[in-house]
Amino acid sequence: xxxxxxxxxxxxxxxxxxxxxxxxxxxxxxxxxxxxxxxxxxxxxxxxxxxxxxxxxxxxxxxxxxxxxxxxxxxxxxxxxxxxxxxxxxxxxxxxxxxxxxxxxxxxxxxxxxxxxxxxxxxxxxxxxxxxxxxxxxxxxxxxxxxxxxxxxxxxxxxxxxxxxxxxxxxxxxxxxxxxxxxxxxxxxxxxxxxxxxxxxxxxxxxxxxxxxxxxxxxxxxxxxxxxxxxxxxxxxxxxxxxxxxx
Amino acid sequence: xxxxxxxxxxxxxxxxxxxxxxxxxxxxxxxxxxxxxxxxxxxxxxxxxxxxxxxxxxxxxxxxxxxxxxxxxxxxxxxxxxxxxxxxxxxxxxxxxxxxxxxxxxxxxxxxxxxxxxxxxxxxxxxxxxxxxxxxxxxxxxxxxxxxxxxxxxxxxxxxxxxxxxxxxxxxxxxxxxxxxxxxxxxxxxxxxxxxxxxxxxxxxxxxxxxxxxxxxxxxxxxxxxxxxxxxxxxxxxxxxxxxxxxxxxxxxxxxxxxxxxxxxxxxxxxxxxxxxxxxxx
Lengths: 247, 282
Hints:
Chain B: Keywords: Amino-acid transport, Cell membrane, Membrane, Transmembrane, Transmembrane helix, Transport. Chain B: InterPro entries: AA_ABC_transptr_permease_3TM (IPR010065), ArtM/GltK/GlnP/TcyL/YhdX-like (IPR043429), MetI-like (IPR000515), MetI-like_sf (IPR035906). Chain B: Its main location: membrane. Chain B: It comes from Nonomuraea corallina. Chain B: It is found in: Cell membrane. The complex is a heterodimer of chains A (247) and B (282). Chain A is of the alpha/beta class. Chain A has 9 helices and 10 strands. Chain A has a 6-stranded mixed β-sheet, with helices on both faces. The two termini of chain A are 33 Å apart. Chain B has one domain: MetI-like (MetI-like fold, Orthogonal Bundle). In chain B, helix 3 packs across helix 6, helix 4 crosses helix 6 and helix 7 runs antiparallel to helix 8. Chain B is flat and about 80 Å long. The two termini of chain B are 25 Å apart. The model of chain B has no long low-confidence stretch (mean pLDDT 90). Classes of the chains: A alpha/beta (247), B mainly alpha (282). The interface between A and B is medium-sized, with 23 and 17 residues.
């Protein structure tokens, strides 16, 4: 049974057509990676899924319910996604604890004591127990991104959407963020992520999708995509990644 | 402590620090000498200029100064009172108008249009004109419930005029918050209203403190405009004494009082701005 079904999704910004009829199905516990050059539509696809962008055409179903229906309750839909951004987007005027408990308390109506208890458990689990009272600007990039992941997790999302979550980090810090995502996969979290970290992508994904110019050109298990891709474009992309030393 | 090499200051570095210190002393003494020379020269020129005795008697008459000071200072309490009542009202009006202009609900379109009209109107009309219209025009309507008290009318006029400016300050603060902050809040499921309340406004408030204080420095001065509708405050009191004696020292008294009030606020504003710059740099 699929959690998320994207059917024939189109999106353009002015004359720039970014998504050209994308189809994608995501099952429970599945980890789907979107790879492709910058501007291929990966991030836009994620932003369409949690309705930060309104698609021009096509449908998205979450647990069988169409969320692209104009009458759908946008806030109720977003409650079920946990989104993590490339630039962390933590709230700078709040402590780590307040960043994490804001949505549970204000959206999910969890009491303060319980929300803080759950936040503490998450912080401990990901090695940030001593940072609860810190403000984001006192944390390293890797710590900020881990807090951002915890903030998304705290709402107990159905699906996690991770948009280039390691792109703004230096290599030492990438490792600690990737470790969290691995742990999430082991816990059975359904995830869609965009990434430039190919070896990580190969390691963690159940399905890899290659996007090219807004078209989902090729899709399959990582072993197949990375060793015997069908399309010339996929091969060209992967060899340029290899050349840039990012594999 | 971490192990490793221990720093022993080199002779070269000691020599450098000695040169820097002596350069610093030189700079200070040059600045002091040049300031003393400049002030002395300016004093000599002013005092020896042909009109100086008349200027001194008209603006710097110590006897007049002491005679006028109590009355003008008493009038100045009215300025402070107007300022203290108007300031929170202006903040409230400004914030409400800014929030209304930021709404998107179609049902609120008329209110939104009204808020825009208000800001356009009262930013365009000179404050003095607003004070005259409210101070003379409102009571002339002879409507029930219109206050007759001049202080109240002055506060209403200043609030109307400054509320429009402050609304724009708030609005620019709200718009300066990066869209990624809103995206993060909305994708957590927060509604538009809660995003505004918990994420946008607290950050915007910090950014508008300095421009707001600037507006309040200006408001402190503009309380004197209320004298035009007959309220006896510092400026009016000075005017009354001056018209009796043809000596302008009372104006100097009033000016000094205004300066004494605005300088602390202005310095505090500078201090906050400098601190914000340091924080952004760190």
